[in-house]
Amino acid sequence: MMTISSTDNLALPIPSAFDPPSLSNTLAYLEELVSFAATPLVRDLCDTHTNDPRFMNDLWAGSEPWSEWMLWAEQNASKGQEWRDEAVRCLACGIERDDSPPSLRSYMSTLNRLSMPRKPLPHSAAPSAKRIDLSSKRGVHNAGMKPKKTHEVERLSELIAETLNASERCCRHVVDVGAGQGYLSRTLARPPFNLHVLAVDSVAHNIAGSEKHYARLLSPSASDVVEGAVEGGSLRHATAWIECEALRKVVDDWAETEEREGDGGEACLVGLHPCGDLSFEMMFALVERESRIGSMVLVPCCYNLSSPSNFPLSTPTASVLLSSYPSPFLNRPHLMLATHSLAHWNYIPSAYWTHAALPMKKLSYRAYLAEELRHLNRPDHFSENRLGRLPNYAYASWATYRAEAMKRLGVDAPPQAEEWTAEERQRLELVDFRIKIFWTARAKLGEVLESLILLDRFLYLREKLGDGADVRLTNVFDQSTGSSRNVAIVVDRKKQ
Questions:
Q1: Phi and psi (nearest 5°) for 444?
Q2: DSSP string, 372-439
Q3: How far apart are the C-alpha atoms of 233 and 197, rounded to whole Å?
Q4: Which of 485, 232, 19, 17 is nearest to 9 (CA)?
Q5: DSSP per-residue codes, 219-268
Q6: How far apart, in Å, are the Cα atoms of 361 and each of 37, 429, 445?
Q7: CA 353/CA 329 separation, integer angstroms
Q8: Tens-place pLDDT, residues 219-265
Q9: CB-based burial label for 260 (10 Å; 0-12, 13-18, 19+)
């Protein structure tokens, strides 16, 4: 049973329709999320791909729950590119247009009502906390980091430091789970944080790269080392296959191989977008071990690589599902869709197409290619027709893309005219508009599915840890930087 008082407000971002986040309001939010995710509309959206041959038909004749959207696209495809682009942009920005079909307006209204707020906390939320600006550092401090990664490491390292500084457990040791090239690890180990960090990854190549960068940081001859770069902190590395038991052993072994003062050998688990089931393994290690894992700061990612069997985790979610819903409730298409976000395209609404034009062209060209492959009797199977990533120059025109794609697939196709006929162009404008409307509406669903996943994990940790820990969800990254997965799960065990 959950040990949360019905009068307590829970620490999570919650839509305004359910504010304040009391237990009763949060459970009502959970029920609405589950109910919506179980609708035939949502399940059909999840199971339909833009390469489906239905999108290539001259006239829409389907009876899908979203067929009204396709008929509306058919009726308005001749209104010109500017009108069509604005209709798609409004959909991406969550704008409920009066001239869109009633079922689409209702769908968008539900998405807007149920999606967790994702605006990050003000950067000055804790003015006494230590701050870092990696963009002003040189060389090894931000080696290999693009602006998105720089932003993520800056903000997450500050949140980790704030969590440890506010804790009563006096912990200064951090285990970076799925550390990769060690960007976060190196940042935490040096000023202004000066933490003792163990970077753990299952890929030896990643650990070797992190060790190389750290060795440069320690080298007195390195021309780009800032004075005092590693004062007070430390960084060790370990290569290990990361699952719950192995993670707990890594923490134990680390504590037993060095002398510690004040923290009793405890460690804080941290993860910046750990892949697949690593997020679950971190949570399981935390809730099943009280002695040496005192806290956790985790920004989950890669839901598409996680096991469907790990949903639901919490008793409240399971109780709602057991009433009338199928198992597994979230299948692979749901989990793949939960990774979708348009936030980094629409943060400046007027500039939406600056970011979205090329990705949308890729969708349409891939759908045209799928249709042509069917006409060539190519097996209609993903593994047979997997292209991988083509260079951007391949999208200069349909003829260029077609030639590159056929070459990649090893298909000897007849030549293609450089230009479409007027009749072909008119038909493909309709196909293009259909695909953009469908894909955008479907992608917006990802925000709600991720909200459901995050809420289930939050309730699981509250249920398992009860009053013995502070558990919260907090928006840590600015999605405009491209950091779509921006919600951190923060846990701090209370000292017994």
A1: -60, -25
A2: HHHHTT----TTTS---PPPGGGGSSHHHHHHHHHHHHT--PPP--SS--HHHHHHHHHHHHHHHHHH
A3: 8
A4: 19
A5: -TT-TTPPTTTTSS-EEEEEE---SHHHHHHHHHHHHHTS--SSSTT-EE
A6: 29, 12, 21
A7: 35
A8: 655 444 444 455 678 999 998 888 888 888 888 888 887 765 555 67
A9: middle
Give the number of other CB atoms < 10 A from CB of residue 271: 27
pLDDT tens digits for range 380-417:
665 567 888 999 999 999 989 999 999 999 988 887 77
Q: How far apart are CA 228 and CA 414, in angstroms?
A: 65
How many angstroms separate the CA atoms of 302 and 151, rounded?
A: 19
Task: Give the integer Cα–Cα distance in Å for 275 and 303.
Answer: 8
> What tokens appear for 115 in the block?
């999606």
DSSP-derived letter for residue 39 is: S
Name 364's Cβ contacts closer than 8 Å, sequence gap at least 6: 428, 431, 432, 435, 436
Q: What's the longest Cα–Cα distance across the chain? A: 77
- Give the span between the Cα atoms of 80 and 93, in whole angstroms: 20
C-alpha distances (whole Å) from 47 to each of 52, 122, 141 are 10, 38, 44
Neighbours of 445 (CB within 10 A): 23
Buried b (16+ CB within 10 A) or exposed e, 225-242: bbeebbeebbbbbeeeeb
